[in-house]
Each structure stands twice: as structure tokens, then as C-alpha cells.
Specification:
The protein has 1240 residues and is α+β, with helices and mostly antiparallel strands. The protein contains 33 helices and 30 strands. It comes from Blastopirellula marina.
Length: 1240
């Protein structure tokens, strides 16, 4: 056993202390970290218990099974609360202290100051950041680990002179095993300081602040073991700790000398030999790639006491080329982060001829390559990133003319190798990707060779592909990278599905329970209507239309029109906010019978035939602000009051609405061309291709529409289309530079994976609310974030209530909702369930008392939640939803004590009928253009127009495992969906929302932009969404959101900054059009509806934006140019453009118009082959990054990119310019037809 006994004095539990504190040589506290030790330490982060500590025979004073703790250096720590004032951990002048510990340092950077143990400087709220009472640290100087003692005195000057640090002049080598360290001091007597290493007292010096007789800072901040400063990595210990003790005396030299006893020769730890790994058989047609995470360091290879990490993932390639890592997933199949650094090991057998060759190695970070066991080439570690002042890196020269140049700040090494005999050789590459402060990205890792006598380079390929070389040129490498990306996507899908297999089984069982629930509470019966009505949706719609037609004859049309056009709008605008479904004061005015009954006062609001006896009129005309209604805003106008008075005098009749005949007549079914365009846009978000349209139009199958729907629902582009809807709904708000209000992680990737995998919406919502995986990597943990928000979980409560329950809680953030029934307590109950603990309302989210004191009448705003009152994790919506926190619910859960899981389950359980109906209503609205309930996010006071249809569809959703695709198919196969879009449902009252036709809809911003790219045959070619393309910062600081190929992948470009160096000119070209049509990258709050009203900017952007002009050009070797070159006739070319852009053939008038423009010169439009001059490629520009953006040259570079955007791509030289420009005008004209941006 160790000489230090595991003691924690019982007095630690007391609030006050009496002197003397302890008996000589008995520590105030010590921690042995034994396997069964129970101490009041709270672990945070990567603390690993029960690792081997100092043990015999080398350390004979320890037990053979002695254990220690390991800290990962990323803020990992033990936390111990200070018992209070005058505790044994508080030291001031005259107090003696000895701090001692056993340390096994794994990593220690030059200049690092890592904490063994310290009191204060935790950066906790309520404490100064410089409140260090005392600390024992390890400081690296000149390659040695030195012992350091630190404390702070009260600051009077605001500089660093109040810090006092003593550091030993001697030290030991990191990674040399276990060492005993100690520091002793009597506060107020600087000459008393001493430091000890392995039982020997070592000299030191005051290297900060100098000696002082001043007393240290003393407060009640915590004691931390293993870290400080909020968990800063530079202050965090990396390695093992054991036998830590705090003494309130200076131990004698003899006592400390006895602490350390070592037998035998100490092992010298050094770099491991760089030997090529033996990997056994590798198939001749593949490059074997393995990925190994949690490598010890990013800037060195293994030491002799370390072992190579196990394989975390495998992939098979076809060349020594790689630009990405496979994705990592947790055990739910949700994206998480690699434990960086990650080592990529690529190995394969390649054919090399005899001779002297040049091997080329490219890597972003540290790497090495062997050929047949011989180490040939190495690259250096990745360095950190400065904040803008780094010199601009010049554009790299290619290794040979016409070859692909290396990426920005990618290293390139060339070495000569000699092959004595032609034949196969084994090549192995190891490269480190990322690190503790870097994103785990490999750059463009490449191994290529230029063989003897050749001046060209080719990427190394396996034996069986030796006859199919991969030249190191842009076209070939980019094609190979595309194949790598496709292969990685398949691997990622497989990995995700395997990881989620257990969850799949759980959800299969849960969905069975959902089906059983529907069987117990079956769907409403489908109405029986005309025999021609086959579809359930149409049956409900027709039944309602028939009902309205029958009721229409019961009320005089003039009376009905007057009520619904004059009276009801006044009631709705002036009265329903408080006396609709909310029934403030017990009074409801959205129903005649309830209005006549009156509220709690017993006074009827309406006395039919007698306006003077009607409280409504009395309160509207009152001059007393205490009694006048409505209580806020301007008084009701005299004109409106007279309308209400006359209505009451005439008997206050509440007739059914009278509708014109066309409002009760179903519109015709659309033609096939219209249907295919509508179906494509509603499912995959882009217009159909020319081939898709012609094939569908020529198909004579009677069931071709249903087959097309099935085909589109199976299309992976489904996910691309639907992600953007959920981004708005859930306020997904990532930022590239600095986090702004309510900034979140990019949980778009969680949404995308869920949609690709066809997860039931109940599962997707549950996993979203559980906030798992890695926030920067795209896991649902990103949903938990809400930057600069004083109560982020309250913000999430608002989001989920509006998105999934149709409950608007925005006002409840600071007070009870004045026009809704929800209270502030309701919202913070949701926040507490998310937080898994009680919460209180922040002061900044509390209405100040003075607000109420100045009011002359009772305020509509109520604050029933007392300031500082804890709100417990309690479900507030049992009555509203039908879901109760009971044993039936617990059967759906994994941990019934987890309030966050409980909240997710309460929202998504089958018993919660509101959830399924809200989702159903949202899907219906997205396809039909108006909801059965309006507004989708706020159901209070807004009854459904077709309640039985809504219930039938919602239970259809539950009965089919909450599969949104099934619901979409049900709706799309109805006649209603396939009718002409002439409906007037969106603005109609519920009673008048009859769905005799779908609504006319404009395409979303994403549909417009993505369809422009698809229709013109262009790929989206914009910048990668990052300002740190060289991966020299952590994802939590400067993330990489990837290169967009669909509009939902864009993030805020922060182009509002007056700093050209931080602009993204190519992406801004796309964002300009997206923004014009309602898209916003800044989603600070959930949004169901975007701004859709037409404005003057929209036609201007469609006509004159760089995006439209560039995409409608017949640019060099573009699809539009190829169409023009290959066209057999003008008519065929016109047909092709119309089918691509508008999904239909031109009318006779359109054909005649454009034929006249294009016929002239058509036969002679091509430039003779001998006269074709290919345009010169544009000069490559240096890369601008966060590291160099403050350089003036960075502005110039980005301004040149902007100029190139304005210039557009070069024209195709195969077409004569005069005819080509007329052709481009034709394409531009079709794009600018109004119908392009409208759903057919």
C-alpha cells in the first residue's frame, strides 16, 4: 500500500472550522482512487477510473492491484465543493500547505501549465476569473516536466503582477512513467517555498509576479483535480494521477523523501521505431484503408510504451487517393465525432518497373509512406491557425505541366526510389487527420509516382488496375474523387444502419403498439358518396361539399353574406383573441349559444334583438378604460359598433356561409404534363427531366400516375426536398463565423439521415429531442444549442410546441400568453423536462414589476410564475393531447426517470392524438396549399375545417408506422391533389374552407434554384461552406458545412460584413435568388410560413441576377451548348427547352415566336472544327481563409472572384456568337415566363 492513507476527514462535512485544523502529517484530504473508493468527487468529461497506478516491483510501497485515474486533457476533471468559509481548503497568510501527487504524464506541450489540483480559477459564474487560492501544476520548460506552485493575490492594478508562480529548475521527461511531485509553502513567507520530484528537493525560481508577502485570494470556489479555467485544454492534465493529498503543514524533508521508493532500472521512453506494419494478404484489386481513432497526438508518431489503436472503420479503395473520412455514428445511428487524432492507414500492392522513380506524397498533416518496408517520405504535423494575419500562401505550382496542383497548405514531398526488379511492391501510407484542436479531415491525401524516363505523375493503383492508370490531372482525379464520395456514402449508410439495428427493433415493437392503439380507437368511417368517388380523401371532401350545398338553401344568401363578410370579421378581430377558444372570464364569443349564455359575471354578452341589453355593446362603448373592450389597442370604431348593434337588433343570427357555385364545385383533373411537374416538385423538389416528361406522356398505362408517385417516393432526392421544411420549422441556425442569437449546430444532417432512412416521424422527433451525437458533426445534439439565449431549453420548448403540438408559446417566454391559454409555467415545465432538472426563469426573461405599477387598468399580461421559483419537469399538456405520464407511457420508454425521454415520448406516443394530427395537417398543407387547421403552428381558436378527415388521415399515419411517405401517397393519389389549383382555401374561414380544389402555390426558393440547375443541366459549383478550408481549427470554432449541391445545404454567408475577404461570391450568387423568394439563413425562431407575397425584387432577380444569366448561357461544353450543337431542327430544340424548363411542349403561338428567332442562321450556327479556339482557363487564385483574411491581398482576391461571377463562364466556341446569343435569349425568355416559378 502507498504510504498515504485514503483519508477524508469527517469534518469536511461541517460548515465552519476551528483551529488547529489537523494533526501533524495527517492530510486535510487525500484521494487514492482505489477501485472501491467512495469520495465526494464529481467527474466531468473524460475521466477514466481503475487504470493501473504505480505498482510493484518498481514501486514496492504500493499494492499489486493499485489503481489510478486517467485524464484525457480536454477539460476532464474531478470537482470537489468547498465546504464554506474557513474550510480546510482555504489558505491565507501564516497558513502552511503541502500539495503532493503521483503523476504519469502522457502529453505535455512546451509552455503548457497543466493542473494536478487547485482551488479557484474555475471560471464559474459568481467568482472572479483570477481567484487562485493555490494550485499544484506541471509546467513544461525546455522539454522537461517541472513542478509549479501558483497562487494569486487581490489585484489592484489590473495587470498580471498579482499572479505568483514558482517553478522548479529541474524536471523529468514526459512519458517516463510514474513520478512523485510535491510543493510546500507558508503563505506570506516567500522564502519558505519548496518543490520536490521523486523524493528530492529541487531548486526553483519565481518566474511570474515575483515573491510576495501579500495574502492570497480566498473565497468558496471549488477544488478541481486535473483541469482549470473552465476546462481549457491548455490547463488540462493529460495522463494518470494517483495519491493526491493536501496538508495544512509543511511536511519535513525526511517525510517527503520517504514518499518515493523505486526498485530496478527506470525504463526510458522514446519514439517507437518507424517500421512498416505487417498487414498480411491484400487483394490485388484493392487498396485497403483502415481508420484508427484516439491516436495519442497529432504531432508525433507512437512512443515505445504506446500501442497502435484498433481499427475503428474499414474501406476499400481503388487508388492511393482519399479526401474524406467515413462518418461516425453513435449506437442510435446518429452522427457523432471521431476521437481525433485519427490515423488513416492505406496499403496495397502496386506494380512498379525497374529503375529510379520519383514518389510524390501529398498530405495535410503528418504522414509517412513505406515501399517494401523502406521508409521513403514523410510530412510535418499540422500547425495552428492565426486570426487573420498569416501571409497569403502563393498558388502552388503543379509537379509537372498540366498536372493537378496541391491544395492550399497541403504538403507535397518528392523522393527518389530505386526499384531493382520490375514487379509488385507493397506500399503502406499512414497519415494523421485532425487533432484535439483540429477537425478530423485528411485534405487530399495522395501518393503518386513518376517512373523512370517519364515526366508525368500517376496516382498509385493496385496490381489489377495497373493497366488503367490514374493520371494526376484535374479531370481524372476529380472523377476518381466522385467515385470515392459515392463509395463512402454507401459505407456510411451501411454503418448507420448497423449502428441503429437495436433501435430499429425497439421502434418496430413501438410501432406495433401504435397499430394496436389504432385498432382500439379506429378511424372514422369513410362517408358513402357517389360510386365514382373511390378515394377516402375525396369521399370526405365531397361529403362536406354536399353538406354545405344542402345547408345553403336554409339561409337567405344576403343575410349569410352580410354576417360572414361584415359581422364575423369584426368579432374575429376585436373579440376572439380573448373570448374565442380561450374564453377569458368564462366568456366565449365564437359561438352564438355561448355568447348568449355569458361568462362568469352571468351577464349575457349578446341579447338577441336588444343591443342596449348586450354587454358586448356596453363594453365597446364604455369611456372607462377599466371596463372598455377590447382592453388594448384602439377602441372599436363607431362604424363597426353600429354594424354589431344592427346585427344584434336583427336577432343576432349566425347563419351558415353562402358560397358561390364555383366554391362548391370540384375543379377538373389536370393533364399529364401538369401532374408530372407537380408530383416531381412536391416529392423531390426539382422539375422532371426532358426524358422523364416524354416517357410519362408517352406511357398509356392507366395506373401510370400511381406508379410515378411510387417511383418518386423511392427517390433519394426526397430527403433533399424535405430537409428545408424541417429546418424552418425547427429553427436550425448554424453559423460559419461567430455564433449569433439562437445559433444551433447543423442538425440538418440528422434530419437528412432520418429522411434518407425513412424513419417514422415519431422516431425522428424523438431522436431529435433526445439531442444525441455530436453537435458540430450534424447530430441531433445540435438542436440543443441556442447561442446567446439565457434559457436555451425554453427556446426549444417553444419550438417543439409549435412544430409538433400546434401550441404557440412565444409570449410565454416572459409572461403568461395574453391571447392563448398557455402560461409561463407551461413553457418552463417543458424547459425543465429538456434540462432533466428544475429550472428558474432568468431575470432577463421576467417582466419587471414596474411594468404593472403604471397601468390604469388590469393588464392583459399576467405573470403567475414568481421570480426565482423553481419549475419542475412536469408535462403540462395532458388534457390537450390525451397523453398522460402514466404506466402506459412508461412502457414505451427505456428510462422512465429521464424527463427528456419522457417529454419526447409524451409528444410522440400514439395516445397523443394532437401530434399525429399536427403532422398530418402540415403534410396536407404542404401538398394542397392550405391546412385543414389554419394556422398549423397555432391551433387554439382555429378549429379544423374537416375534423373527421383529419382524424382519419392522422390514424392512417399512426397505423402505418408514422411513415410520412405513406401519408403523402394517400394524399397524392386523391383526385383533390390532381385537380386544377384554383382553390381559395388559405384565406377562408374554417366553415368556408371546402377544398373543392387545391391552392395555387408558388415554388419555394429552394425549388426555384434547384430546378434552374437541373433544367439547365448544370452542377451547383460554389465554394465550400467554411472559412477554415485547411482544417486548422476545431469544428466547434470554425466548422466545415461541406460543398452544397442542393439549396438546403447553404448557411448564412455573413455577407453583411464590410469585409470582402470573408465573402463567398459564388455562393452569394445563389443566396441572392434564394433570399428574394423567401429563404433565410438566419432562423432565430421557428417558422411555418415564409414571406411569399410577390415583390418587385423577384422578377428583377429572375431576369437580371448573375445566377439566371450564367445558367442560361450556352457556356463551354455545357448541356445547353450541347443541345444547340446536336439539335436536328429548330422545332426539336424548342421542344427540348420547353420540356426541360416547363415540363410541357410549347403552344403553337410560342413555337412560332421562337422559331422565327432561331431559324435564321440555324443551319450555319456551328463554327468549323478547324476554327474552334478553346478559351484559356482562368488563372488560379490564392486561397483566402480565416488565417489570412485580414491581409489586404485577401480582399483583392475575393473581389476578383466576384468579378468572375459577374463575367460568367466562357461561351462555347463551337457556336457562332450571333446565333448563340439569340439562343441564350430564347432560354432566358422561357425561364422568365411566370409559370416557371409557380406550381402547376
Amino acid at each position: 500500500m502507498n504510504l498515504i492513507r485514503p483519508i477524508l476527514i469527517p469534518c469536511l462535512l461541517l460548515a465552519t472550522w476551528s483551529l488547529p485544523f489537523a494533526i501533524a502529517e495527517e492530510p486535510a484530504a487525500s484521494w487514492e482512487f482505489g477501485t472501491e473508493e467512495e469520495t465526494p468527487l464529481r467527474s466531468v468529461g473524460g475521466v477514466h477510473r481503475d487504470v493501473p497506478g504505480p505498482r510493484p516491483p518498481s514501486f514496492p510501497d504500493f499494492a499489486v492491484n493499485n489503481t489510478a485515474v486517467e485524464f484525457d486533457g480536454s477539460g476532464a476533471r474531478f470537482v470537489f465543493s468547498d465546504p464554506g468559509k474557513l474550510s480546510p481548503f482555504d489558505f491565507t497568510n501564516g497558513d502552511e500547505i503541502t500539495l503532493e501527487a503521483w503523476v504519469n504524464i502522457r502529453e505535455l506541450g512546451e509552455g503548457d501549465n497543466t493542473y494536478v489540483i487547485g482551488k479557484g480559477r474555475t471560471n464559474r459564474a459568481g467568482f472572479a476569473r483570477d481567484n487562485q487560492n493555490w494550485a499544484l501544476r506541471i509546467r513544461r520548460l525546455d522539454g522537461k516536466a517541472c513542478v509549479s506552485f501558483l497562487f494569486a493575490t487581490p489585484s489592484t492594478t489590473g495587470d498580471q503582477k498579482h499572479w505568483h508562480r514558482w517553478t522548479s529548475r529541474e524536471g523529468f521527461v514526459p512519458r517516463s512513467g510514474w513520478h512523485h511531485v510535491a510543493a510546500t509553502y507558508r503563505f506570506g513567507e516567500p522564502k519558505s517555498v519548496g518543490t520536490w520530484i521523486d523524493g528530492q528537493k529541487v531548486d526553483g525560481f519565481w518566474d511570474m509576479g515575483g515573491p510576495t508577502e501579500d495574502a492570497p485570494v480566498v473565497d468558496d470556489d471549488e477544488i478541481w483535480i486535473g483541469s482549470s479555467m473552465g476546462g481549457a485544454s491548455t490547463a488540462s492534465f493529460r495522463g494518470g494521477l494517483d495519491s493526491i493529498a493536501i496538508h495544512r503543514e509543511i511536511l519535513s524533508d525526511e517525510t517527503i523523501q520517504k514518499r518515493f521508493r523505486y526498485e530496478g532500472k527506470r525504463t526510458i521512453i522514446g519514439p517507437a521505431p518507424e517500421t512498416m506494419p505487417a498487414l498480411g494478404y491484400i487483394a490485388p484489386n484493392e487498396i485497403q484503408v483502415t481508420f484508427h481513432e484516439d491516436f495519442p497526438a497529432h504531432d508525433r508518431w507512437l512512443m515505445t510504451d504506446e500501442s497502435f489503436p484498433e481499427v475503428a472503420a474499414r474501406w476499400t479503395g481503388k487508388s492511393f487517393l482519399l479526401d474524406q473520412l467515413p462518418l461516425k455514428y453513435d449506437d442510435w445511428g446518429i452522427r457523432t465525432a471521431w476521437k481525433a487524432p485519427v490515423v488513416i492507414r492505406m496499403a496495397g500492392n502496386v506494380m512498379l518497373p525497374q529503375g529510379d522513380h520519383t514518389l510524390l506524397l501529398r498530405a495535410r498533416s503528418m504522414s509517412r509512406v513505406w515501399v517494401d518496408g523502406k521508409l521513403i517520405a514523410k510530412t510535418e504535423p499540422l500547425s495552428g491557425s492565426p486570426d487573420g494575419e498569416e501571409p497569403i500562401t502563393p498558388v502552388a505550382e503543379p509537379p509537372a505541366p498540366g498536372h493537378r496542383a496541391k491544395w492550399h497548405r497541403c504538403q507535397e514531398v518528392k523522393e527518389r526510389i530505386s526499384i531493382e526488379k520490375s514487379g509488385p511492391v507493397r506500399v503502406v501510407v499512414e497519415a494523421i487527420a485532425g487533432g484535439k484542436r483540429f477537425r478530423a479531415e485528411p485534405g487530399e491525401l495522395t501518393v503518386a509516382i513518376s517512373t523512370d524516363g517519364e515526366e508525368t505523375f500517376s496516382v498509385l493503383r493496385p496490381l489489377n488496375l495497373a493497366s488503367d492508370p490514374l493520371p494526376l490531372i484535374d479531370a481524372a482525379v476529380e472523377a476518381e474523387l466522385d467515385q470515392i464520395s459515392a463509395s463512402m456514402t454507401k459505407l456510411n449508410d451501411h454503418t448507420r444502419h448497423v449502428a441503429a439495428a437495436i433501435e430499429d427493433q425497439r421502434w418496430t415493437q413501438r410501432h406495433k403498439m401504435g397499430r394496436d392503439w389504432v385498432a382500439s380507437y379506429p378511424q372514422p368511417s369513410v362517408p358513402k358518396t357517389l360510386p365514382a368517388i373511390k378515394h377516402p380523401v375525396d369521399a370526405f371532401i365531397v361529403a362536406r361539399l354536399d353538406e354545405v350545398k344542402a345547408a345553403r338553401s336554409d339561409s337567405p344568401m344576403a343575410e349569410s353574406d352580410h354576417f360572414h363578410s361584415k359581422v364575423l370579421p369584426i368579432l374575429r378581430s376585436e373579440c376572439f383573441r380573448c373570448h374565442g377558444d380561450k374564453d377569458k372570464g368564462g366568456l366565449s364569443l365564437n359561438d352564438r349559444e355561448l355568447a348568449v349564455m355569458g361568462g362568469f359575471s352571468g351577464e349575457p354578452a349578446i341579447s338577441p334583438g336588444d343591443p342596449h341589453a348586450s354587454a358586448m355593446i356596453t363594453r365597446m362603448r364604455s369611456k372607462d378604460e377599466e371596463t372598455r373592450m377590447p382592453p388594448t389597442g384602439k377602441p372599436v370604431s363607431e362604424e363597426k359598433i353600429q354594424i354589431i348593434e344592427k346585427w344584434i337588433a336583427d336577432g343576432a343570427k349566425w347563419p351558415q356561409p353562402s358560397l358561390a357555385a364555383d366554391r362548391t364545385t370540384r375543379s377538373p383533373i389536370v393533364n399529364d404534363a401538369t401532374f408530372i411537374r407537380r408530383a416531381f416538385l412536391d416529392t423531390v423538389g426539382v422539375v422532371p427531366s426532358e426524358a422523364d416528361v416524354t416517357a410519362f406522356l408517352n406511357d398509356e398505362s392507366p395506373d401510370k400516375r400511381e406508379k410515378l408517385i411510387d417511383q418518386l417516393l423511392a427517390d433519394p432526392r426526397w430527403a433533399d426536398h424535405w430537409v428545408s421544411y424541417w429546418q424552418d420549422l425547427l429553427a436550425e441556425n448554424p453559423t460559419m463565423i461567430n455564433a449569433t442569437l439562437n445559433a444551433t449546430g447543423p442538425f440538418r444532417w440528422f434530419l437528412y439521415d432520418s429522411l434518407v432512412d425513412d424513419k417514422g416521424v415519431d422516431r425522428m422527433v424523438t431522436e431529435l429531442m433526445m439531442m444525441r451525437g455530436s453537435a458540430p458533426e450534424g447530430g441531433s445534439a445540435g438542436f440543443a444549442q441556442a447561442a446567446q439565449n439565457d434559457s436555451p431549453f425554453a427556446a426549444k420548448g417553444h419550438v417543439v410546441a409549435s412544430a409538433f403540438l400546434g401550441v404557440e408559446m412565444q409570449c410565454a417566454r416572459c409572461h403568461d400568453s395574453p391571447y392563448h391559454s398557455t402560461t409561463q409555467r407551461d413553457l418552463y415545465s417543458l424547459a425543465a423536462m429538456f434540462a432533466r432538472k428544475s429550472v428558474t426563469v432568468p431575470t432577463s426573461s421576467t417582466v419587471p414589476p414596474g411594468f404593472f405599477e403604471a397601468k390604469e387598468r388590469e393588464s392583459l399580461i399576467k405573470v403567475t410564475l414568481k421570480p426565482g421559483e423553481p419549475v419542475t419537469p412536469t408535462w403540462p399538456f395532458a388534457k390537450l393531447t390525451g397523453a398522460d405520464d402514466d404506466e402506459q407511457l412508461w412502457s414505451l420508454m427505456q428510462n422512465k426517470d429521464d424527463s427528456r425521454e419522457k417529454l419526447a415520448t409524451l409528444i410522440t406516443a400514439p395516445q397523443n392524438t394532437r401530434f399525429a394530427q399536427v403532422i398530418t395537417n402540415r403534410v396536407w398543407r404542404r401538398l394542397i396549399g392550405a391546412g385543414i387547421v389554419e394556422l398549423p403552428q397555432d391551433w387554439e381558436g382555429n378549429p379544423p375545417s374537416h375534423p373527421e378527415l383529419l382524424e382519419w388521415l392522422a390514424k392512417e399515419l399512426v397505423a402505418n408506422d408514422y411513415d410520412i411517405k405513406h401519408l403523402v401517397k394517400v394524399i397524392m393519389t386523391s383526385d383533390l391533389y390532381q385537380q386544377e389549383a384554383i382553390g381559395e382555401n388559405l384565406s377562408a374561414e374554417p366553415a368556408q374552407r371546402l377544398f373543392n380544389a387545391p391552392e395555387r402555390r408558388r415554388m419555394t426558393a429552394e425549388q426555384i434554384v434547384d430546378s434552374l440547375y437541373v433544367a439547365t443541366g448544370q452542377d451547383m459549383d460554389v465554394e465550400t461552406m467554411t472559412i477554415d478550408p485547411d482544417g486548422r481549427r476545431a469544428a466547434s470554432s470554425r466548422n466545415n458545412f461541406g460543398t452544397p449541391h442542393r439549396s438546403w445545404m447553404f448557411v448564412s454567408l455573413s455577407n453583411e460584413r464590410d469585409r470582402p475577404s470573408l465573402t463567398f461570391p459564388y455562393a452569394a450568387m445563389v443566396a441572392e435568388m434564394l433570399t428574394a423568394f423567401g429563404w433565410s439563413a438566419d432562423r432565430q425562431a421557428p417558422k411555418t410560413d415564409r414571406e411569399t407575397d410577390p415583390n418587385i425584387r423577384q422578377p428583377a432577380v429572375m431576369a437580371n441576377s448573375n445566377l439566371t444569366i450564367n445558367l442560361t448561357k450556352a457556356s463551354n461544353h455545357s448541356v445547353l451548348a450541347d443541345l444547340a450543337v446536336d439539335a436536328k431542327s429548330v422545332d426539336a430544340l424548342i421542344d427540348s427547352i420547353f420540356l426541360r424548363l416547363l415540363s410541357r411542349y410549347p403552344t403553337d403561338e410560342e413555337r412560332l415566336l421562337f422559331n422565327e428567332r432561331l431559324s435564321e442562321g440555324f443551319e450555319d450556327r456551328l463554327v468549323p472544327a478547324s476554327e474552334i479556339v478553346q478559351p484559356e482557363p482562368r488563372e488560379r487564385l490564392p486561397q483566402v481563409t480565416w488565417s489570412n483574411h485580414l491581409r489586404s491581398e485577401a480582399n483583392t482576391i475575393q473581389q476578383e472572384h466576384a468579378q468572375r461571377v459577374r463575367q460568367g463562364p466562357p461561351a462555347d466556341p463551337r457556336l457562332k456568337s450571333d446565333w448563340r446569343m439569340r439562343y441564350e435569349d430564347f432560354v432566358w425568355s422561357v425561364v422568365n415566363l411566370k409559370e416557371f416559378v409557380w406550381m402547376p
